[in-house]
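User: Just a sanity check before I run the rest of the batch. Below are the structure tokens for the first item. I only need the designed sequence back.
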């Protein structure tokens, strides 16, 4: 199996951070994606731009568009096992935090902070995190055959507990402290995303089942948010694009296709 770091141009001896100032690095990270991913990227950017232009242009609308485009590109990069999510994900997450707080969805803002910690910073500061990505991807059900330390039952139980605790903690945080108008949907969506991010960090392809569920929940959350006048429809459509990417991951990405892992 070919080393993924050679495919992506990642120098194993130094953090990805030092490559951020090299234009060639960005070209390499967006090379050799699946054809479907390129088509989805072009369509998504064009569609999100058209939706932004069709609505009143405000500073928050421009920032929302920027976060949406960077965030969507990030999800495609992850699907294609590229560490581009470090820089793009970090920028989009910071903007998403501002947008989510402005829209009165505090749990979603917290979720973006979790993304920064679990998905973005490791890529930027840890050389080993971004190497051999394809080789480390597997299903939870495969850990036994790979002779890993923890069993599949351990991981299933752990993720279930994390999901329940995250949902309860965020729900009570919203109803007791922030008094969010959408505590149940916002906290539940964030809990799903936290588990999905943790699974992705641990290189479990099962994470995409959570990303699909989270995408559906985000569409509902931002659809309700827009209908209540707290946000535009741009993020509603953005998460519909995320769902399309998750569908691509199931059929044409290293996360599920062994033939694409090296």
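Assistant: Here's the designed sequence for the first item:
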């Amino acid at each position: 199996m070919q080393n993924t770091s050679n495919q992506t141009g990642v120098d194993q001896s130094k953090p990805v951070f030092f490559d951020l100032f090299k234009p060639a690095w960005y070209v390499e990270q967006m090379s050799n994606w699946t054809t479907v991913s390129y088509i989805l990227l072009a369509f998504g950017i064009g569609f999100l731009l058209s939706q932004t232009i069709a609505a009143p242009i405000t500073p928050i609308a421009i920032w929302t568009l920027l976060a949406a485009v960077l965030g969507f590109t990030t999800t495609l990069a992850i699907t294609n096992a590229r560490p581009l999510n470090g820089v793009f994900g970090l920028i989009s997450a910071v903007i998403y935090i501002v947008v989510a707080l402005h829209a009165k969805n505090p749990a979603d803002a917290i979720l973006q902070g979790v993304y920064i910690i679990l998905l973005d910073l490791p890529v930027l500061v840890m050389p080993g995190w971004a190497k051999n990505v394809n080789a480390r991807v597997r299903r939870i059900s495969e850990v036994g055959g790979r002779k890993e330390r923890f069993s599949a039952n351990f991981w299933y139980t752990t993720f279930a507990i994390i999901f329940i605790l995250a949902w309860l903690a965020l729900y009570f945080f919203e109803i007791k402290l922030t008094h969010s108008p959408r505590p149940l949907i916002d906290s539940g969506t964030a809990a799903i995303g936290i588990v999905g991010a943790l699974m992705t960090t641990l290189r479990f392809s099962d994470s995409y089942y959570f990303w699909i569920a989270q995408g559906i929940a985000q569409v509902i959350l931002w659809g309700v948010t827009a209908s209540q006048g707290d946000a535009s429809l741009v993020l509603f459509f953005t998460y519909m694009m995320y769902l399309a990417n998750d569908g691509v991951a199931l059929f044409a990405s290293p996360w599920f296709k062994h033939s694409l892992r090296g």
